[in-house]
Amino acid sequence: MGNKTIIITGATDGIGLEAATKIAALGNQVGLVGRNPEKGIKAMESISSLTGNDKLNFFQADLSLISEINKLSVEIENKYSKVDVLLNNAGGANKNKIITSEGLEQTFATNQMNYFTLTTNLMDILSASKGSRVVNVASNAHIGASINFDNINAEKGYSFWKAYCISKLMNIMFTYRLAEMQDKVTINALHPGFVDTNIGGNEGSVIKRIVKFGSKLFARTVENGADSSIYLSTSDEVENISGKYFFKCKPIKSSKASYDKNQWNKVWSLCESYKEQLS
User: Fold this and answer.
1) Contact by Cβ (8 Å): 175, 118
2) Which regions of the chain does DSSP assign to beta strands (E)?
3) How far is CA 277 from CA 111, 127, 152, 274, in A?
4) Are strands 29-34 and 5-9 parallel, antiparallel or unpaired?
5) Which residues lie below 8 Å from residue 75, measured CB to CB, with a gap of 6+?
6) How far apart are CA 255 and CA 141, in angstroms?
7) How many CA atoms lie within 13 A of 272 on its CB side?
8) What is the pTM of this model?
9) pLDDT reported for residue 225
């Protein structure tokens, strides 16, 4: 899959940067999305130096805000005549409850509303490209999680770990629901494994300790953690596969709760409602 146009969110460090580098090395045109322009420039310089590929663009956006995602979507559509792959990789979690300027709990906003809004915004341009794909980075942290639709924005209390796990469950439900709706675009999700990344940002010292413990326990490097992202974005082997959950480049079962179609519809309706309200 060389010479494709591939958008990668959260592409300036960790798994996203590793995926962007390996995908660029195949000759693809890569659009990197991140919040920090300085990190974006450094990421492009690093990728170009390592791969010799200068078909790179950086898009700055705070993906916790619907307004910025809508602006980003327009910028992407104006820049590219086609998009072949959207790799939704950006995510995070906060030790303390944070409500965005748009009124959403930030973990939910960044991890789920981001995926939903950017994907649905770009669906027309994705559908116009034959064999196009959406790849959603989720996590096995979703196992055991259940969604309290009366506490989406932490109205009744906040737990950083529960918020993160629920957002990853939503990622998978969103993947399955969209895959059933689409016949022109394949949509798959993946578990990268426990990898020592900057997922907690400056807020997540506790989360960082958990991730570091998990990464040591399960011994996944950033390179290994990016394997399924790269595979699902570029491999001919998954050209016609959709609605699956992958780990180590192989489909696996997600949690029992993730297959509840009534919950899929509730997650979809919730996200659609927030998108309409905030656009």
Assistant:
1) no
2) 5-9, 29-34, 56-60, 85-88, 132-137, 185-190, 245-247, 250-252
3) 18, 25, 16, 5
4) parallel
5) 59
6) 10
7) 9
8) 0.91
9) 74
5-278 architecture in CATH? 3-Layer(aba) Sandwich (3.40)
Yes or no: say if 211 and 141 are a contact pair by the CB < 8 Å rule: no
Each domain of the chain, given as residue ranges in start order, spans 5-278
Kindly state the tokens that stand for 130. 């034959």
**Alpha-carbon torsion angle 244, 123, 114, 200, nearest 10:** 50
Q: Could you give the CA distance from residue 97 to residue 159 in angstroms, rounded to a whole number?
A: 8
Q: In this predicted structure, what is the pLDDT of residue 203?
A: 43
State whether the Cα torsion 93-96-102-108 is positive or negative.
positive
- How far is 80 from 78, CA to CA, in rounded Å? 6
Residue whose entry in the numeric block shows the structure tokens 């993730």: 258
Say what the pLDDT of residue 215 is: 46
Tokens representing 137?
């980075």
> First vs last Cα of the chain: how many Å apart?
34
Q: What is the mean pLDDT of each run of 10 residues along the chain (279 residues)?
A: 90 95 97 97 97 97 98 98 96 94 98 98 96 97 96 96 97 98 96 64 48 49 80 96 97 98 98 97
CB of 112 closer than 8 Å to CB of 170: yes
Q: Tokens for 254?
A: 């997600």
